[in-house]
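Exercise 7. Given the components listed, write out the predicted structure of the assembled complex. Treat all entries as one system.
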Amino acid sequence: MDRINDNGNTVGKPRTDLALEVRETFEEDNVEIQGVILKEDYDKKKDIRVTTVIIKDQRGADAMGKPIGTYITIEAPRLCEEDESFHEPIAKELAKYIRKLAGDVTDREILVAGLGNREVTPDALGPQVVDNLFITRHLIKEFGNDFSEQHKTGNVSAISPGVMAQTGMETSEVLRGIIRETMPKLVIVIDALAARSIHRLNKTVQVTDTGISPGSGVGNNRKALNKESLGVDVIALGVPTVVDAATIVNDTMEQFMTKQGFEDKEIQQFMGELKEETMNNMFVTPKNIDESIKRISYTISEALNKCFA
Amino acid sequence: MDRINDNGNTVGKPRTDLALEVRETFEEDNVEIQGVILKEDYDKKKDIRVTTVIIKDQRGADAMGKPIGTYITIEAPRLCEEDESFHEPIAKELAKYIRKLAGDVTDREILVAGLGNREVTPDALGPQVVDNLFITRHLIKEFGNDFSEQHKTGNVSAISPGVMAQTGMETSEVLRGIIRETMPKLVIVIDALAARSIHRLNKTVQVTDTGISPGSGVGNNRKALNKESLGVDVIALGVPTVVDAATIVNDTMEQFMTKQGFEDKEIQQFMGELKEETMNNMFVTPKNIDESIKRISYTISEALNKCFA
Amino acid sequence: MDRINDNGNTVGKPRTDLALEVRETFEEDNVEIQGVILKEDYDKKKDIRVTTVIIKDQRGADAMGKPIGTYITIEAPRLCEEDESFHEPIAKELAKYIRKLAGDVTDREILVAGLGNREVTPDALGPQVVDNLFITRHLIKEFGNDFSEQHKTGNVSAISPGVMAQTGMETSEVLRGIIRETMPKLVIVIDALAARSIHRLNKTVQVTDTGISPGSGVGNNRKALNKESLGVDVIALGVPTVVDAATIVNDTMEQFMTKQGFEDKEIQQFMGELKEETMNNMFVTPKNIDESIKRISYTISEALNKCFA
Amino acid sequence: MDRINDNGNTVGKPRTDLALEVRETFEEDNVEIQGVILKEDYDKKKDIRVTTVIIKDQRGADAMGKPIGTYITIEAPRLCEEDESFHEPIAKELAKYIRKLAGDVTDREILVAGLGNREVTPDALGPQVVDNLFITRHLIKEFGNDFSEQHKTGNVSAISPGVMAQTGMETSEVLRGIIRETMPKLVIVIDALAARSIHRLNKTVQVTDTGISPGSGVGNNRKALNKESLGVDVIALGVPTVVDAATIVNDTMEQFMTKQGFEDKEIQQFMGELKEETMNNMFVTPKNIDESIKRISYTISEALNKCFA
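Answer.
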């Protein structure tokens, strides 16, 4: 999540990495946004809700503030529960949607990048997913395709590059370099995300074929992790594990002020003042975040192992 | 911090573990609270402010909602800065105040307890302090007092017991058991605290001779870590590393409502409604909390090693 | 493994924590040792070999240099393999033998102690097992027996006390104290062991009802973790993850000298000289020990969760 | 250490990464090897011995089985001692020799690569050194050269790429890619090494301008980390933290057989047989390796921070 600190959101707009939540900010949910398709499925038995947001064209991208592409959000309240019997069906569901976006991957080389800071619990999701992956690229190199045929595995490599405060480098620099050398056909980036609502934390996975584009692609492509910047297909898998502290305060304030009959202008002005506060580099996360990260990262590893290993 | 989840704070009263902040909640700072003495020193050169709150009697305890005893708060903005040259003077200052509360400890057996959850970054302070301590009890046992005389060390043992979700046991149960077996003369508990203000996070150390008393001693002594419950002198060393999410929202709201001219009753009512929200087990912490915890725990270890090793 | 450094083994006798390997050192395998019963089962399909050594009386204990009791050794070459489908049947098998030694435990309070040093990879087995346990004692305390009935769980608490270099205390002191406070009916200690043979590393689990008795109970009971010292039933679960460096050199040398026709006296003398070497605090372990510990600790946690949670 | 598993050493030749130890294998220490210069300094007060081995030409390289270049070995028995007052002078000494090999680096961009596996204690040296570095590249990028002038820092970036079993990629592939993107002027690789003698473990640092060349450069340049393969100056900093299990057995055997009057041919033959044993992927390391790695990595970080930050 570190990398998306200064993502140029306009003042007052609450920060979220979920296309689903951006969609919800439009005042009237039933109004169709031009260029954006919305689809929802709910599996009652498994308690898994899948929402697909497709941004078809530039109009949709402008309205949503997110690049053109497909955003699949899997909401599974049981994702962070202790009972492991819930995780297998979620991993299967997740694998299905990764395969859908990845296309035919059976014989492709995959690089999985576990973004984030291993030392900050809610940001350790990416590195922990990588820790549990079945890595095969070096084995196939050593034993030939016999290995992958015999074990029915794909060709998987992985890296947890760390965050800029640890490396002094942009994640995009590190990945671009590695990709040039090892030439994978598909990159999968795993990252902890910021949500707007506390209720979505650790219960939601977003899968998208747009990669990660901080600042909604407005010029800031140097930091982006997408096909344009990396030169290869990119699927991004994210789980909201934090809410920005400013967002949580803003949202409560805004609800209150609206309820109290303040006018939009007054609300905007007050919000602008709040922004000055030093809440900028603060996040909100649950006290049992260690357990949630452990379980969710395990489930995502399982999904990826199902797809590619 | 885990252990102080449900500390029976009355509704509306913001949650803080710092006596200093409790003192500040009294409307007019200059009014003397009966039974409470306040003293402040500021070393401009080192930029270290030391505030001593002494709760002298039960009246003071009732007013403050904290047990009788001495609370020394050391505010050092440089505590979490990268430049290590700042840490030595802070460690020295801290050692001075620990010695003050500990009395003559040169030849006493000390048990240091690093409370908190190693797996949740802002709560890992206690375990990380213990990781850097110079442990000597087993060496003195093996080589006799010659060892402690030759190396001029005290007799130090230490434990990081983990939190209840990891052990199924109260920290007080674990410590009481260990104390009965090993009979230390002084217990020092290290813990991450919750502050009310974001501005104090990772810049403040509170040293107190009251130990830790969740729920301000109102009957809930089973969980307390103090002389009464452990049967031995207890010094508590704490650093605020988080703010409760509810507190941060409440404080902003309250300020706003007061400014807008709402009446106390209205504010109280609105705050009561807010409480219902699911922010209960959420905390706020800075994004670079890993670096802060690493530096502060190192400084505290140094202070303890200066005192006892 | 830290705790068994100086276990008073007589010179020349290779060091091993496995009763099975002690048994093998008797020159002629088929000779019956008085007071010792040996039983072997092999499940070809699962490739799991179970050897039960029962030391019936003091004669057997003297001959074996181990306390009276039952030692079950489960050899499963697939224990450290990557393919997780192997782990489930091993966990089941292991659970069967734990239940056998534990007796009826469904409604008993269990304390699991993960011994060893989390910071030294081959010694991190115990702490890592504890990390994956389903801990319930605090939940039952909070929600009553309804919880355990509804979730069909036992009453499980756990602790990873660390090693003496970290705490300054004997593991036995820490556990005795905790046991006095929390009164479990059964203690299960998990520990990394030293084997004699490299071939057994990370492929073997020993389950015994004798606890852990460094120095074969000869007076050194202060350090022991058994019913006598802890006052409660103790089951020890151990996996050999290291070979003492001295052992590996000795064994090779001895084989060579025997083959070359040296006489026993000459061999003994040479071995005595070797002992002087500084290999005392050195161990041998495989380069991929991190992967093995991760897998095995997961399998053991699963076995314990099957039994008690 | 992972990367140098199969380094094509000729049978019987004991494995060591230290030029100093290779030099010692020549039967008569005082005989000059053509093309190799040896220089030794001993600072009695600090108890630091510095040995410089310069391999001047191909003859020297052939004789030593190591590439042409300068190998500085700093032996400091106090390197792994607990008393921190010893570490400062060692860090200073180390910094002196790094500067010597690095040339004028004040205004050069440096990439530090912490090789090895963070999860295997004796192999975690590189990653732990990186954890304590003062990283500045991103700050200079953000705040301009003002930052480096004001703080008198160099331009430092760093990466801990992990080992092939974790990434599926050669370390050389990962570094080559990152170097192409970020264009540092100097790469410093930190790695745990294998020594021949137990007595050198955790007391020795080797600094060399040859980089790391598995298999002594004989064709196997794909895996090498040197100027030729990375296209940029490379300084390698290594600390022997393990001895190969085979080496320790071989050495003891060889000493014994020589003493017993066996002929070289017999010894060679026996050693060949020993090789077949499964000791190949086994290493020997001390039980307190966690403490040594922590201290040494801290000292090396300090040395690097002195040089470049």
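Discussion: Residues 19-308 of chain D form a domain with the Rossmann fold fold (CATH 3.40.50.1450). The two ends of chain D are 27 Å apart (CA to CA).
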